[in-house]
Each structure stands twice: as C-alpha cells, then as structure tokens.
Amino acid sequence: MLIQDQAVLDENAAALGVPRKQLMESSGNAVAQVVREVADPGSDVTIVAGRGNNGGDAFVTARFLTDYDVRVRLLGRPETITTDIARENWEALQRAELDAQAVRDSADLDVGAPDVVVDAMLGTGVTGALREPAATAAERINDADATVVAVDVPSGVNADTGEAAGVAVNADHVVTFHETKPGLQDVDAEVTVADIGIPAAAELFVERGDLLRLSRDPQSHKGDHGEVLIVGGGPYTGAPALAAQSAFRAGADLVRVACPASVAREVQSFEEGIIMRSFAGEMLQPHHVDQLLDRAVEHDVVVFGPGLGNANGTLEAVGEFLEAFDGRAVVDADALQVVPDVDTDATLLCTPHQGELQKMGGETHEDWRERDDLVAGFADDLGHTLLVKGAYDVISDGETTRVNRTGNPGMTVGGTGDVLAGVAGALLCTQDPVDAGAIAAYANGRAGDLVVEDRGFGLTAADLLNAIPTALWGDSDG
Ligand SMILES: NC(=O)C1=CN([C@@H]2O[C@H](COP(=O)(O)OP(=O)(O)OC[C@H]3O[C@@H](n4cnc5c(N)ncnc54)[C@H](O)[C@@H]3O)[C@@H](O)[C@H]2O)[C@@H](O)CC1
Ligand SMILES: [K+]
C-alpha cells in the first residue's frame, strides 16, 4: 500500500468515526506485542522517537510495556511535536512519570545497552535522507547490540520505494500497519503486518479521504490539469454544455466541445470559456470520425456521449471512433450501448445508470451489496471501468470496487448525469479510472447534498455545477 493510499484510508476511517488517535493506540499496542515476542519481561527497552506520528505510536507502546524497563528518548523539543495526537501521548508519559526525556542534540543521545531498541524516529512522513539528529541516532542504533524493532518502516527507508537516501536503521523486525508497504519487500527484517482497526468500509466507501488524491500543486501551469474534449450534442444541446462546464468546475484547464455545426452556437452560448470544434451537419456520422480522432489526440481525455442521440449513423460513428482510439475516454449516455461490441485499446470509464447498464448487457440488483459483485464481474468482462449510478453508485474495474453514498433523491432531475460525466472527464486527466470515477461520483453527490442542505429540494443541474468546486476542494468536514 502506497503512502498516499494510506493517507486516504486514514481520513476515510476518520470520516467513518474512527479517528487517527484510536489507530495510533492500536499501532502502539501492536508494537508492544512484538517487543514481548522478542524479549522477556524485565528486559531493557529503549524507544527512540521522532516528532511525528511514528514517534506517537511508540509513546503508546511505552505505556503498554508495563513489565519492561522502558526509556523513551524524543529527538527534538516536545513543543515541536508535529501532531496533537502524538503530543497528547507524549504528555501522558510525563504525567505517568515514566522515563521519557527529550534530547536536543544527537551528541546527548545515550541509547544505553538495552535488549531492544524501538526505532520510532520516522515512518511514512520521511522525505529525503535522514537529517540530524536522526542520522546520528540511526548510526547509534545500528551500533547497539540490541534487537531492533522498527515502527512501520525502518527510519530512513522510503516506504514506497524501499530506497534509503542516506543512512537508515537496520531493523530486525518491522511492525507495519494495516497492509504491508512496497518498500518493505527488500528490507532484510521480519515484517509483521498489524491490524489496527481501520474499518473495511474505509476501503470500500468513497469518503472525504479520497479527495486527498487531488492535491493541486501551486506551481502548476495551464495544461497540467488536463485538456478535455467533449464529443456530444446534435439532438440535444444542454447535455454537452453541462458536461463542458462541469469539466471546468472540476479543474480541467481547457475544455473543447466537438458537436454538429447546427448546434454549435447554442452550446457555446452556455459558457464563453468553452472552445468549439464543430463538425459539419446536424449529427455525428461515420465520415466525421477521422477528423474527431485528430482532435482527440490533442486532449488528455475525451468525454463521449452527452446529447449525441442514438441515430444509426451516430452509434456506428461511436463504434468506429472507439475501435481506432487508444487514449482515455469517459463514455456516457447513448454511446454506452456500443462499448460491449467494440474491440479497443482505449481506456474507458463508462458511466451508465442502471437502465443503460442493462442495455449494455450488464445485470443489476436492487441491493447494492449484490450489485457490487455484478458490476465488478461485468467490468471484468468488458475490460473497462464502470461507474454504475444509483442511490449507491458502484465503481469497479473488476479488481478494485468502490461504493459511493453521497447524493439524494433530488438528483434524479435531468442533466445531473451530464455533470457527472464532465467531472469524471476532468478527473480522468490526472487520476486512474477507478479513482476518477469514485471521486467524480462522490463530488457529484456531495454537490447535490450541499445544494439541498442549503435550499431544499428542487435543484437543477446548473445548481449542481456551481457546487462542484466546493464539493471537491471546499471544507470537507460535512
Ligand atoms: N494509518 C496510518 O497511516 C497510521 C499511521 N501511523 C503512524 O504515523 C506515521 C506517519 O506519521 P507522520 O506523517 O507524522 O510522519 P513521521 O512520523 O514519519 O515523520 C514526520 C516528521 O519527520 C520529519 N522529517 C521528514 N523528513 C525527514 C528527514 N529526512 N529527516 C529528519 N526528519 C524528517 C518531519 O518534519 C516531521 O516532523 C506512520 O509511519 C505510522 O507510524 C499510526 O499512528 C496510526 C495509523
Ligand atoms: K520507524
């Protein structure tokens, strides 16, 4: 599990009522358990802790090791402990009058001659080579004739890559939490993966933690967050316009709409920021496909379907396009029924409601617990990602399945699906398909919830549009 996935999971657990301090309690307990396995009661244990939550875990461990001779050494001043929960656990050691002291300088660090050293200097928060005093402390720990138990990851080792940019702790045992980390594969130590009470629901349900994947780099340039081409319109004009506007709201830098020339002016009138790329005629036809493919490769993601209609020539054109396309696309509305019949190298995120799913040949079920397996199976058959809309949205690529619970009955109004497709298109520029689908469903539903909380039912797709930025980047404690 990558560090970012862990952070997402953590925040999702908090959203589900299991705050991180509770996880820290379980982590510290799990480390104490391993210390008991490697040393008998009465043994000397030195805990070397950093100022982050990795250190916090070990402050908890100290409390659990009542039958041992424990000394805790904090590297740095207690006032600079970086999180409240780690500080609270440090203060608990002070109040209990345990042997817990801060060392300001590595020169003052006396590891002693313990039976066990618990390395809790740095965990997943480390970036780059160990700085002082941690670097010298790591050398002291490595020189000590003791069994070394590392908390989460040996300090100095990057949990994602296994690389050490400088000196790192040589651990005999590593106690990591919830799931193993890729970087521990090459570490020559016994690894224990401890369950720390993260509910399975934190992994299944899309919650505010998933939004952590969207961190926007302040240094970014126009184009970094993606260029989206909406292919839609003809019989309908509102649908492509809504999808284009919502792609902007979800952070796309540039949005262009390819639609029949007959409706281009009308689509443009919804939003002056949209760049029109119209093709001749009144609806999409096979002879437009080459031109569309040329346009498509200039974009990160194509959103195919909003308002295209289902005329014969149109569906044929969708099929021909998808057969020749090898980029990323969101497929929505009438275009969906073509997907099972095409052989394509494209990466597709398909966004059917349950009626459209059935038209594609997929099965549905009233109970989301049953539906979730059916959707996963069908996604696997298709070889594409599905976001099946419902009271509970199910997102799956056959391997990873997520369920979104935001949204409300007011959202059955027309146009909300077009908004979702546009958001998914913008997110698919920077996220993998399951994450893009999951976050899009969450944001769309949450936008609907925000509107209804504010004004009651009677929302329109345009209201939803305006609430998308808050749903994605606003205050997330709701
Ligand atoms: N689900 C989870 O993710 C849980 C994580 N927990 C613990 O939390 C840890 C992560 O905590 P944090 O995010 O607070 O991070 P860390 O405790 O790993 O480190 C943060 C501190 O290290 C400093 N630092 C960063 N790079 C450094 C370097 N190269 N040299 C010296 N200092 C450096 C930072 O300034 C910061 O003060 C995990 O490893 C794990 O032990 C547990 O508390 C419970 C649950
Ligand atoms: K550590």
TrEMBL record:
Record: residues binding AMP: G417
> What are the residue boundaries of the YjeF C-terminal domain, all occurrences included?
205-475
Query: A Gene Ontology molecular-function term?
Result: metal ion binding
- The UniProt record lists the YjeF N-terminal domain at 6-204
Q: Which CDD domains does the record associate with it?
A: YXKO-related (cd01171)
Q: Name one Pfam family in it.
A: YjeF_N
The record ties this protein, via PROSITE patterns, to: YJEF_C_3, YJEF_N
**Residues engaged in binding (6S)-NADPHX:** 53-57, 123-129, 152, 239, 307, 353, 418
**EC identifiers of the protein:** 4.2.1.136, 5.1.99.6
- Free-text comment on the cofactor: Binds 1 potassium ion per subunit.
Q: What UniProt keywords apply to this chain's record, in alphabetical order?
A: ATP-binding, Isomerase, Lyase, Metal-binding, Multifunctional enzyme, NAD, NADP, Nucleotide-binding, Potassium
**Residues the record lists as binding K(+):** N54, D119, S155
> Which prosthetic group or cofactor does it need?
K(+); Mg(2+)
GO:BP terms for this protein? nicotinamide nucleotide metabolic process
Q: Which residues form a coiled coil?
A: none
The reaction(s) annotated as catalysed by this protein in its Swiss-Prot or TrEMBL entry are: (6S)-NADHX + ADP = AMP + phosphate + NADH + H(+); (6S)-NADPHX + ADP = AMP + phosphate + NADPH + H(+); (6R)-NADHX = (6S)-NADHX; (6R)-NADPHX = (6S)-NADPHX
Subunit and interaction comment: Homotetramer.
Per the record, the similarity remark reads:
Belongs to the NnrE/AIBP family.
HAMAP family recorded: NADHX_dehydratase, NADHX_epimerase
According to its UniProt entry, the function of this protein is described as: Catalyzes the epimerization of the S- and R-forms of NAD(P)HX, a damaged form of NAD(P)H that is a result of enzymatic or heat-dependent hydration. This is a prerequisite for the S-specific NAD(P)H-hydrate dehydratase to allow the repair of both epimers of NAD(P)HX.
Official protein name in the record: Bifunctional NAD(P)H-hydrate repair enzyme
Q: Which organism is it from?
A: Halorientalis brevis
